[in-house]
């Protein structure tokens, strides 16, 4: 991934947009990473992956509920307190 400092990225924004079509472009400010510019297509792919991951997690939770693999919050906290104190 190409890394630019914020001043260069600002000055060369059009070029940053072109580069982002081929791969992520990192932006640093004061030597620290602050942003990454990616193409709209890559952003859409990331959003779709997040949505699929969330859908799978929800399905897993529903399956746990149907299988009776649930614990109420009080029981979880009691178990954690025992673990910490014991």
Automatic annotation (TrEMBL):
Record-linked InterPro entries: Antitoxin_Phd/YefM, phD/YefM_antitoxin, YefM-like_sf
UniProt-listed NCBIfam families: phd_fam
Family in the record: Belongs to the phD/YefM antitoxin family.
Organism, as annotated: Candidatus Tenderia electrophaga
One family name in Pfam for this protein: PhdYeFM_antitox
Domain of life, source organism: Bacteria
Function: Antitoxin component of a type II toxin-antitoxin (TA) system.
UniProt name for this protein: Antitoxin
């Amino acid at each position: 991934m190409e890394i630019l400092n914020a001043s260069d990225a600002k000055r060369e924004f059009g070029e940053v947009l072109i580069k982002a079509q081929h791969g992520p472009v990192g932006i640093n400010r004061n030597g620290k990473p602050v942003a990454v510019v990616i193409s709209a297509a890559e952003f859409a792919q990331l959003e779709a992956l997040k949505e699929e991951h969330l859908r799978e997690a929800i399905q897993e939770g529903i399956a746990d509920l149907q299988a009776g693999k649930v614990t109420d919050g009080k029981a979880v906290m009691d178990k954690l307190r025992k673990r910490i104190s014991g």
